[in-house]
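Section 3.1: Structural characterization of target chains.
Under the original work plan, the team committed to producing a structural model for every single-chain target entering the pipeline before any wet-lab resources were allocated. The record below documents one such target. The sequence was received from the expression subgroup and is listed exactly as submitted; it comprises 241 residues.
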Amino acid sequence: AMASKESWRAWMAGPSRELERLLTAEYERTKSWSFTCEVCHLPMQDPRGHLCGQKHLSALRRTAKTQQLFVLAQGRYMFDHLTGELKPVTGEAEQEEPVAQNATCAQPAAALPPATDAMASKESWRAWMAGPSRELERLLTAEYERTKSWSFTCEVCHLPMQDPRGHLCGQKHLSALRRTAKTQQLFVLAQGRYMFDHLTGELKPVTGEAEQEEPVAQNATCAQPAAALPPATDAMASKES
């Protein structure tokens, strides 16, 4: 999987989402985001983007240290930067020291502004939507793992939503949201029906009939994720992989 940046990105897409989901849950508990990549020795403000990126791949090729221990409020977890394996640690971890939780990096706002105030600037909107977009991406990723189909559309922008977090936090989506009164979107998934509010970020299961929205079209035209991922070692072979 290390042979090219494309194969590495495909290989690490799922594991990086799972680690991001875990770290996001930790932030929701502690209101502190100070995670560091022990391969690159850099703040990991965007886990998925960082772990799938060329710089991280290059650093991984130069080190024998691939495992990293995360000591969190919810438990101890070992993440392997090469294989993508993420597992809870029940005893003493031998290979790594706990991740420094005071790494120098931008802290999320201690308190987020009301939704309407958050739309004042792209910076405040990105901070406001960071958590909710991660949660929606986690839900849609779980759906893809069940169905092997990724065809979700943003009903505010009427565009394919291949990268939920990047799309929902972006300037184009914010501009479209300012022009519409339609903020709620119903996702009809194999795991259930969920309503997402594009303004407040609220995501909740729908048990009865949803009144405000029609189900999301599941056949939107967009690129399908790779059906099968290559072995990890193959993905690291070259800079262009």
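The longest helix spans residues 5-30.
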